[in-house]
Amino acid sequence: MSMKTEPFVVNIGPQHPSTHGVFRMRLTLDGERIIDADMVIGYLHRSMEKLAEERSYTQNIPFTDRTDYVAAMTGNLAYVLAVEKLCGIEPPERASWLRVIMSELQRFASHSMAVGVFANDCGTWQTPVMHMFREREKILDLFEMACGARLTTNYMRIGGVSRDVPPEFRPALRKLLDELPMRMGEYEDLLLENEIIVARSRGIGVLTPEVAINCSLSGPMLRGSGVAWDIRKADPYCVYDKLEFDICVGTDGDAYDRFLVRLAEMRQSIHILEQCLEMMPEGPVHSQITTATAQPGGQPSAPLTIRVPAGEAYGRIESPRGELGFYIVSDGGPAPYRFHIRSPSYINLTPLRELAIGATVADAIVILGSIDIVVGEIDR
Amino acid sequence: MPFLAKWYDLRDLGNAVGAFLDWIRDLGGPDWIPYVVSGLIGIVAILLWLLVSQLAFIWIERRVIGRMQARIGPNRVGPWGLLQPIADALKLLLKEAITNRYADKPLFWLGPVLIFIPALVVFAVIPFGEGMSLADLNVGVLFVIAITSINSIAIFISGWASNNKFALLGSMRAIAMLISYELVQAFALLGVVIFAGSMRLGDIVAWQSEFNTWMFLLQPLALVAFLIASAVEINRSPMDISEAESEIVAGYHTEYSGIKFGFFYAAEYFAGFAVSAIVVTLFLGGWTAFGLERWVPGWLIFLSKLYLVFFLFIWTRGTLPRLRIDQLMAFSWKFLLELLFIHILVVGAEVLIWHEGDYPAVVVLPIFAVINWTLAVALVVGWATFMGHLRPERRAKRAVLTQELGATYFRPAGGHGTGPMGEA
Amino acid sequence: MTTVLSGFDLAHRLQPKLPDAVVDATPDWAEVKPNRLLEVCTFLRDDPELDFRFLSSLTGVDLLDHFEVVYHLLSISRNQAATLKVPCEDHDNPEAPSVVSVWRGAHLQEREAFDLLGIRFQGHPDLRRIFLWEGFAGHPLRKDWLNFPGGEMAGLERYPGEPGGKLEGRG
Amino acid sequence: MEDTGSIVAFWLLAALTLGSALAVVLIRDLIRAVVLLITSFLGVAGLYITLSADFVAVVQVLIYVGAISVLMLFAIMLTPRAGRNNAETFFRIPGILLAGLMAFTISLVSLDTDWAVVERGGFEETASAIGEALLDKYVLPFELAAVLLLVAMLGAILLVHPEGTDEE
Fold first, then answer.
1. What is d(CA B86, CA B58) in angstroms, rounded to the nearest whole number?
2. D160 and A5 in contact by Cβ < 8 A?
């Protein structure tokens, strides 16, 4: 005789505290065990790929802010790198350094959100996420200093960045960098060593490296499974080849390891930023300042339109969530012919069903939290 | 205790009540009038005190957790945001209490009402001070356990009646947790009863006062177990599994809004106070404090202890993550209960030795305290080592830093398998 | 630095094993026949010298008269990348073999390409719409998709497979 | 039963107990039936209190309200299609007959018994008396009951344990 219970369908989302936006998991439960899982997405679909086909290359930069709205800088960067690859523009050196600074700050900010929210998914009542927001706010202040916007930065330009950072940026960044390592120590002690977080996330959602690679996972998901792969090292863009940093990998491939890798990468970002502050040269920040409409500060702005030769390019960078790629096909016109975003959040969801089946509802939330999705990037 | 027994002696509020009752008695009338009046006074006093404390603690909790979370907390309504709880209460009163169409309406209505009962009724047996208890029952401890178990029925009813899947999951979890932790609660209190030799709460306080000790000094394990079990019973973090916000939205009260939600919100505080009151009475010496009660009103001592214990619940809420339901239940069945069995055996033996040998308490009690503390620490540490630190898959670790691109570092600590590992 | 294998290089490597698979090769990509795609992909994945075990990106491009599916491949152990293309000749009803059996990472990306471009991937285990709802008219990333045919009428349907029509459970 | 208070309490509690017990039988909705059953249990506990049996009253609440009914709720939740409704059953007539028979027997016995009228006392300590009786005079039935329950529990576990699965 065996217990027969009725399967029970629960919709986690689209409005749910732990789906990080409008993501919906349709779970079929047997008691608390998940026997089937499906995801329903598209609630935030804005059809950016279609919209981008009707806008000029520069006009598309703001869209890239709004894909991964937690990491707008890296979205910008991936796009401009792809276009630069297509038309062979080489940005000036200072611009490359600024790009690295911004994307590392963005990585720190994004990872701090991911880590805090993951702890939230493990059931803390907002405390880690609030502390993480504190650090993120300071980084957003720096962004505001550099480009006037905090969240949707629209900072990178094809051929450089939109403007140089103001003189007060450097001391502010210095001050932040002096503070962050101490905070990081706190977070590592309080979150990584937390018995309940260990109990909740270790051994949950295990991905072997074979599965991770086969599922095209990238970023902390891949590194959490123990594959030392980081596009910043593998295919250094901007000035990453001049910087010294380590790839952070986990050894168990579970939710805890993905969380661990993010925390370790935050430390690496601090390390990279330290080096950037020392090594960043002076100079122009844009390669072709031509039709300059002088701005109030006397700085000329980047050109608004650009002619791109016919062809195609796939530019990839290591965004906080993984391999962010832009596949751009140009027919020589003012707008891209095809504009495809390879969004890591979306593809990282590939093994979600397999990870969720057999887990409990509580585990499913932890697993989803460890994937670190941004719905704007999933749906685009 | 040398009480003045004048009505203005605030060290025992019973004096004032007694004076008032005498006055009524002097007016004449049937015998039961003073009896009923004294009961009513007690009920009204407890209710008023609960309401005021609750309003105060809404503010305190929000401010304290605000500080813990590196933010300010409510500071707009009134000075330092002091009127925030009143604003909250008004908001809850004015909001529409939506009943979903397929809810089981009588039960949906009954849930929030029923959830108040255990939290309030428990206070009937709590001695707030010398002689200051509404009904000092013979079987006080048992009464407390019995009444708090009703809590989960209220939770179940509201979860089921909501006709909401999250609510149903929440109530399923609540019932499962109740079954696991009721025994723990009973066993934790059993040790206290064995020592004090009475189930009357007043006697237990008197026992602690007589031997100049607090029960938790003698039975630390019981206190810890009771605190954990009551945190489960009243759904406070880290055991707020039946209303786990990040998993099942709000658990059993997902569908409740307006004042019906306000009932749950208030009952959460009341239950918290009730549990703190039990902890204070049984483990922390109640309204006595090593002779301090001669100078300071006993009820003040009691209340300050109660608030301190309640603060503990706020503190854990601000800091700890949440366990999974199977881990929590395994913790009860596979750990706490076993430890408590050992504890009860040891405590029983101690009491037997004490009474048979007729040793003086001054000699015996410190020895017992040392034995019990050693036992508690050894058991907990032993279990933690055995279940946690000796097992690599339970240990915290740090990321591997490498420069070697494309290499694989996959070496799972806890064997293979993709399934989640329960608390084995 | 990631080495990029040119299309010629790919074609050269594929030549001995699958001589007739490659139709076209340029410095940037190699184009293979749809019916040989699975063999090519399996070869690219399993060949120890190529070792393209990581499918970076899969997408489709509407080239007005036909569709093209583009695969960006990556080898983690050898740190090299390559681009593969497959034409889908029938513009009205494009079809391509699914590579989910080779790379599971293609699962969601093929669903996306199906949803937005209407390319049917033969052999995909669960080819459903993903961003748009079932019942959405047309595939919006096609160049000939300019607006909702017949106005914005697309009806909101319930989750596929769920019992009942629009109003069940709402009273 | 000398003062009015006790009499009023008795009649109220008796009405509550019997009324809700009747409703348990008549009502179709399972969950409501359990809730009413809990009310009935509480009424019985109240009756115990009027008999100065405070220990038994509290134990009634603890065991029947806190444990037995929770088990019933659990059973209802675990039943496939617990639904809202209790269907018609063939056992209706035999059930009524059996209940009538039992009521008849109990009334007969209670009327026939020569009740010893005890003077109404206060709430004296009954717990220790019960404890001593259980562990002294009636220790064998007590222990036997415990063993019986254990065996029943093991049997239940064995029955529902799915074959071939060995839990961690």
1. 10
2. no
